[in-house]
């Protein structure tokens, strides 16, 4: 098993890409903490998976916009598991609105979750991983971290920030034995797209040369690789998992 004995935290782990990542890590032998908001499905998801995987899945409520909650998440992880070997910094929210209409509150909310939250989690992870002399942090960026899109000012600003934050953290962390990378998903077939009508869905599909949307487990597999020792010489990278979306735009 590729992650045997590893202890992993997945933020936003109760659904979508996060939940698929939790499941793949458990299948590969890791112990995993699902970190998600308190009033979500995290506790029930963890209980169900814990029963299937020999007591290796836990839930810890954590809002990535709250520094105290993030710091307590890592304190809890060390107390329960003894170490944190990898983190998938996956929690995020969307937001579509013309730039001249978006409110300060809506703009800053997306920035706080998608960029500041990533920093808070990474900072807490580094404080645990530096004394260990090892660890892997994987930040969830986006195709919109490298290209713009109309009506997504906050989201693209945040995800672009995640890409460059990843590079900076990788440079800082490398001498301490910690790797930091990002994943740039294309459009992924999750419940977030269920509200789209067929024309809009087909339009999204057409943007990907492979002719389909991505699946959550395909992002999970990318995380699994970057979290594992197989990626031991990879840091500061932004791995695009996008069905070719960015190939013709780079």
Features:
Rossmann fold; 7 helices; 44% helix; alpha/beta; 250 residues; seven-stranded parallel beta sheet
Description:
α3 packs parallel to α4 (104-132) and α4 runs parallel beside α5 (153-173). By secondary structure, the chain is α/β, with parallel strands linked by helices. It has a single domain, classed as NAD(P)-binding Rossmann-like Domain (Rossmann fold, 3-Layer(aba) Sandwich), CATH 3.40.50.720. The longest helix is centred in the middle third of the chain and has 29 residues, at 104-132. β5, α5 (153-173) and β6 (178-185) form a beta-alpha-beta unit. It is globular, with a radius of gyration of 17 Å. Helices cover 44% and strands 15% of the residues. The protein contains seven helices and seven strands, in the order βαβαβαβαβαβααβ. Strands 3-2-1-4-5-6-7 form a seven-stranded parallel beta sheet, with helices on both faces. It has helices spanning 16-27, 42-52, 67-81, 104-132, 153-173, 198-206, 216-227; strands spanning 7-11, 31-36, 57-61, 86-89, 135-140, 178-185, 238-241.
